Amino acid sequence: MSVLTPRRLAVGVVVLALFAVPYVFSAYFTGAVASRALYLGLAAASLTFLASYGGIGSLAQTGLYCIAGFVMARFIVTNGVDPILAAVLAMAICVACGAFFGAISSNSEGIYLLMITLALGVITFYFFSQVPAFGGHEGINGVRTPGFIGDPVREPGNIYYTALIISIAAYALVRYVGRTAFGLALQGVRDDPVRMRALGYNVRLHRTLGFAAGALLAGAAGVLGTWHETRISPGTIDVSQTIQLLTIAVIGGLYRLEGAWIGALVYTLLDTYTRGLTGRFETWIGLILLAILILSPDGITGLAESLTRHVRRVRRPSRQPVPPAPSAPSETLTQSSALDPRQVAR
Amino acid sequence: MRDAAGALRRRAPAVFAYALLAFAIIWVADKAFGKGFGLSGNGPQFVIVALNGLSLAALYFITASGFTLVFGLMRVVNMAHGALYLLGGYLALDLIQHGWGWWTAAAAAAALTGLTGLIMQQLLLRWNQGQDLRQALITIAVAIILADQMIVQFGGTPETIQPPGGLAGTVEIGLYHLQYPAFRVFIIGAALAVGALLWLVIRHTRFGMVIRAGVDDRAMTSALGVNVQLVFGAAFFLGAALAGLGGVMGGTVLSLAPGEDDKFLLSSLVVVIIGGLGSLPGAAVGALALGLVEQLSAVYLPSQYTNYSILLTFILLVVVLAVRPAGFFGRPS
Lengths: 346, 333
Hints:
The complex is a heterodimer. By secondary structure, chain A is mainly alpha-helical. Chain A is built from 14 helices and no strands. Chain A has one domain: Orthogonal Bundle (ABC transporter involved in vitamin B12 uptake, BtuC), CATH 1.10.3470. Chain A starts with 5 loop residues before the first helix and ends with a helix. Chain B is mainly alpha-helical.
């Protein structure tokens, strides 16, 4: 196999293009669209990671995002902790909460898990909007950023590169973890928890650790998002925000990791440039979500994949259909047994 | 030795849960009756708080029974249930403002909400049965659209429905000479009636028999010549209508505003997670637990912790899931 495959070439071009964004586009675009798309994509990636590798539909990711954001903001503003140290502490707490959420819900599967995680997410929202230690409804304003980021409004390039590097690292990390023994076992749990249990794997432990890993991504996104906005309030985690994250993941494709960032870019573009055109942005987002769920439940990446497959089949009719990429799960949203193994078990 | 240790480890969550429950009961009892049962103690306050908890539980039960009915039969988690609750309330408010009486408006609002649910089921959920995650996501999309359109139609300011004439005042409840809002007493009665009616329909009518058969084995029921689609449609109509009815009562006793839909979606979720999905007695137990915990914790927590009362809902959920992962009446998956 040659070192320079078309696939690697494409990845290189995409990464180069991403690094060129602050030079090509305006400061406004870099700050309000590109940076925001990166950290929202990172948050959505935590959802996509759990769905595609663990078969876990989690709606608690927005809550975890906010746990990291709020804890860091409080450390920085109230306790005067150094921003980097505060971010590390906040992410540690976020991962601990994620593991705890996972331990609570890991005994459930499929639709039960979706409900329990939604309840956990909403309870997190009510917690932060009621507790005065975290500013109550007002939230926490004036969060300092570390020196290398500076003022995210005046110098959006810094926060953009930080978010980009963390996003690439997170993507690479998830792809790597997917090939480790833990990642393979997690995918086994996704495909058939009953068989994995029979083989001696601790299914609950794997799901709980999966949740902790997902919380790491959501926590990183929470830290970046709070630095970017320099403030955080409970409005960042109410149910409509949870749904926003879900919309992003579904638009991009729930079962492809890169779909999270693609969905976030599409969503942020729509949010920035069409919110003024229509009075009822939320209605349109709901309609778009509905259309995607009805027409192409695997989102944009799923659509692109089936298109390429179709084109290749037309070009080379004698060949076998191209097998899906190694990271793609064997079953998709349309065959929901992947997320509801009870139906298989019955 | 290892067996004993294993048994202890298995029982530990249950023992812990019962200890916690006992502690909570003693704590509340001490706060309520620590100064005696007389009028000078905190007894009267306890009675009012308990009644508040009961009427809230009744409201939760009416709303969540529709949620659990739909899930039990079709395995559809209707995430638009909270939006349907709010829709029912707003429809009744609108009709009353157009000069309808409370009772007719409530009936019409429940029927219209049921119709909305039926349309949603026929258009969006009928052709993808069995794909439960996709269906849940579709109902979320519907919830977004409904919530946003309700802001367009009814505005964002909180509004309240006036109770019907006969129930506007207060009644004497016969304890400590206390007066209590008649409408809240009515809600408790309405929840009992709804529960009894659903129980009778599900246990003792042909329709209920078909529903139970459909819950147990959809394909077999269909093969035996039952028009399962018709039953599904009827059940979805009923479930949505119960959400609408809950909205009318909630709008009368609490208020109607954007955000109430999320609140009641959460309460329905917590109620059925505690009680067990698809179980009517489970919904009753879950609603009682949630309503009482919410109201009692708001009053009986030490005052500096009152803001943390939401954590008690969380603890309730965690403890129940630790002891009974499928809820109190849920069948283990």
